[in-house]
């Protein structure tokens, strides 16, 4: 493995550069995935059948809390990567841990939100609208869940192996993923919740 | 007992029981053979765990050929059933299952792996790379495809085949009208192999963008690499749509969601839209690499550079963009109104323009050339007129008002076979013959090869030209029978004869492989075709590390440059140790777990499904923690291999 | 050049076959819409044949002229980059052809999606055609009768079919009167047809809908308006009323022969509310199809 020291650690080997480019392309595919879900959501948003509409079930408080948590976590992981670039392993690990805790809190509120929906009679089987609503939110939630495990693994690896080209590369890619989830959430917040409540 | 009943085939027949026995015996024979010849270790070490792009390519190739025969048998049965009016060879249910599996197998499990086979094998060689960017991921892609294919293929002996057409339109494919697990197989098997395709897309794009030999700018890439690049970009943007559609279909069937149902707001045409938003780009995913192969072959055997390289690239870029803007032409008859139909009609016809440019460029490549008709060239020369027929009928279908008459008829069936067979299948066979010496170190027999090409073309014309006519005479597709009064009989009989001739042609390919393996000369040198591009600058068959020294290129025809203009490809003659990725069994094991995962979902076996899900996550976690820095091939080893392959030089 | 001969002889054989036998249904139109479509088809076949011939001719030319066997062994083909003018022609001519066909296509789209030409002044007959596995139900709301698996229509009057399905997506198709259109469970689509002359036509579901799909056909009889009125009167007198129970029985999966009823199922099982609008015309006609048809269609 040739290491090019003139580049940031996460870009320092050829394989690292492949990984980052490959992950960007993967995010392109993810954009298509969520775009398809959004397109389906817009198509089905008014097809509520005998079930409730968005305006009837959406609650602003948990959604605002979720948004706040996720936006903050996106900020903290940015700080984490900044710390990584400075070679400050301890600070980086702290910021990553905070990020994951915020993510966990987000997930907690989202689970509460789901229970609420089922409680008010908007389960996944109720109507085309609830099916796509819960599938879209659920797909995002599943991404966050997977991200929590992934992030945890990375923290463990950085702790054990230190900041090597490999761990730095993984951490950087994870941060891209986490920012992406944040961006998706902004779309969910604007086009599903805000639009639905108006 | 009640538990086991779900695995029974709901609509059995002698043929299905016979297949069960045949499958059982084959599996016993394979296991016994491997044990007897003590090949388990070899199989595991050299193939199941390999991450070498060339071996993965070859495995794709073998799978694609196997699936070609599976889908071909389906085709023969369909043509046999329709060869006479009121035929009773198959009943409606079996016929429905057969045309469904024929379509899925041929597109997803034959054409896709065939193009992946050639891409995997050829692209890294054409750009002078040692492997793809993510060799491990590449193995996972292959095994996911393979397990998806196997999962799909066991459907007809366990639980019943899908029977709602390869398009699987809802609500027909919903629980209400498709009560067997067949459509579950469709949803999950395609899902699993689709994930593999998506990862191949990411892998190939990264490889092509990042791993080209020094001097190879984007506009100096060989045309097949360009076409693969574009096809993979389409894959990355099209396959997620299929992923979502299949996931929603699966949820409708297994978890009672209401996406495509008939009540509570479900929307059946949403499936059709999503399916074709993937489905139409998919067509170009298949045809662009085929165009790439033709470009290589035609240029090589015209002994002339490819005419209009820039316009070839431009036309592919235009095609890739437009392929996402034409999907509604698959259902002009949905009643979306004259305006929508007009828009999609125009975009569809417009896509014929860049395709036409390519045809003219190939003709101009041959112009003033020195045409030598080898088997790959023969396929390409047959492709041009036959594909033109398919192309112009495509333009006819694009006229939406007239399409009201073509839609859902044999005319349409004739059209898409007319583009896919001469377009994709001939290209793959041309590519197979062209790259065979690169893969195995000997040539396929030319005489048998040419016979095959002629038989396939004649068979093709006989099988599909009559369908244009019966289509215009009102024969709808997917009808398992028709009455004598319709008068479709004689033409369908001609189709059947054509199908038999094609079957003979395909059988000849197998015979050719056998014959050439036994009798062909192994002394073919490095450049048996007098080729032009970089992949022919290394040995046949290719050593593990592809190129002992990284080549430097200055044009899209690097080898031709070296041969005719004295360009030095390998400047530094001193070998250095080469870094190579390690083999791994995880992709195979993970895909096997995916197989169990899919199977459990198909039959709603929730405990195995949860266990398999955990298993998949554990494999991913393992990958995260794993530290694999690959290994080095030492200078001595390289010297040894090079001497052996080159003869002492 | 065996291949060329073969291709040409096959095309020739097809041509002979086409002219020798009875005309193909689609190319033997009996109504204005089908006539327009057949005209488009023949036009596109004509233009496309020219393209095919050009490509074939070019291929034959280069194969004859530039075979290796016809050239001296030391001939070196020249290196050729693209030529801007040649490629402009390769793009330009197809663009012109496609533009022309697009023009025709767009025009035809608006023609087939509207009341047939020459029939604009006449009051359309509205027929609800709904499919169930594997039958067709034809409801004549104005005449207040319903038939199964057969369709009687008057000539010389525009027909407005309102299509929907009680099950899988089907496609309503009478090749000699005009192209097909989908019938779906959650919306109504409108198909405009007309028959120029009396006759019997084949009609079928063209979209695969499961086991009984092949037999999912119906017979169409076009008759003069007076005969049609007579038939309606006769049905009113002789047929039994269609009850809800009876209709539930009818839409069970299976095949049925021809059946006739008075009353329509639209009264107790209204068609889906959504509709895919073909044109503004279709929009309006759906709105007033729920009330009485007063013949204000002549405005269009």
From TrEMBL, chain A:
Span of domain Heme-copper oxidase subunit III family profile: 21-197
Topology with respect to the bilayer: Multi-pass membrane protein
Listed EC numbers: 1.10.3.-
InterPro entries tied to this protein: Cyt_c/ubiquinol_Oxase_su3, Cyt_c_oxidase-like_su3, Cyt_c_oxidase_su3-like_sf, Cyt_c_oxidase_su3_a-hlx, QoxC, Ubiquinol_oxase_su3_dom
Pfam family, one: COX3
Family recorded in the similarity comment: Belongs to the cytochrome c oxidase subunit 3 family.
Task performed by this protein: Catalyzes quinol oxidation with the concomitant reduction of oxygen to water.
Protein name, UniProt field: Quinol oxidase subunit 3
From TrEMBL, chain B:
Enzyme class: oxidoreductase
Record field: transmembrane: 14-37, 58-78, 98-125, 137-158, 185-209, 229-250, 270-294, 306-330, 342-364, 376-399, 419-436, 448-469, 489-514, 580-599
Main location: membrane
Annotated EC: 1.10.3.-
Keyword vocabulary terms for this entry: Cell membrane, Copper, Electron transport, Heme, Hydrogen ion transport, Ion transport, Iron, Membrane, Metal-binding, Oxidoreductase, Respiratory chain, Transmembrane, Transmembrane helix, Transport
SUPFAM superfamilies xrefs: Cytochrome c oxidase subunit I-like
Reaction catalysed by this enzyme: 2 a quinol + O2 = 2 a quinone + 2 H2O
CDD domains: Ubiquinol_Oxidase_I
Domain Cytochrome oxidase subunit I profile: 38-554
Membrane protein topology class: Multi-pass membrane protein
Superkingdom of this protein's organism: Bacteria
PROSITE patterns on file: COX1 (PS50855), COX1_CUB (PS00077)
Cofactor(s) this protein requires: Cu cation; ferriheme a
Cited PANTHER family: CYTOCHROME BO(3) UBIQUINOL OXIDASE SUBUNIT 1, CYTOCHROME C OXIDASE SUBUNIT 1
Described function: Catalyzes quinol oxidation with the concomitant reduction of oxygen to water.
Protein name, per record: Quinol oxidase subunit 1
Organism from which the protein derives: Mesobacillus maritimus
TrEMBL record, chain C:
InterPro entries registered for this protein in UniProt: CcO_II, CcO_II-like_C, Cupredoxin, CuRO_UO_II, Cyt_c_oxidase_su2_TM_dom, Cyt_c_oxidase_su2_TM_sf, Cyt_o_ubiquinol_oxidase_su2, QoxA
Entries under Gene3D superfamilies matching the protein: 1.10.287.90, Cupredoxins - blue copper proteins
Alphabetical UniProt keywords: Cell membrane, Electron transport, Membrane, Oxidoreductase, Respiratory chain, Signal, Transmembrane, Transmembrane helix, Transport
Catalytic activity: 2 a quinol + O2 = 2 a quinone + 2 H2O
Residue ranges, compositional bias (Basic and acidic residues): 274-300
Domain Cytochrome oxidase subunit II copper A binding: 122-234
EC number(s) given by UniProt: 1.10.3.-
Compartment(s) of residence: Cell membrane
Enzyme class, first EC level, given as a word: oxidoreductase
Membrane topology: Multi-pass membrane protein
Start and end residues of each Cytochrome oxidase subunit II transmembrane region profile domain: 18-116
The keyword DNA-binding is assigned to this record: no
Ranges for region Disordered: 263-300
NCBIfam families from the UniProt entry: QOXA (TIGR01432)
Similarity-based family: Belongs to the cytochrome c oxidase subunit 2 family.
Role summary: Catalyzes quinol oxidation with the concomitant reduction of oxygen to water. Subunit II transfers the electrons from a quinol to the binuclear center of the catalytic subunit I.
Protein name per its UniProtKB record: Quinol oxidase subunit 2
Annotated organism of origin: Mesobacillus maritimus
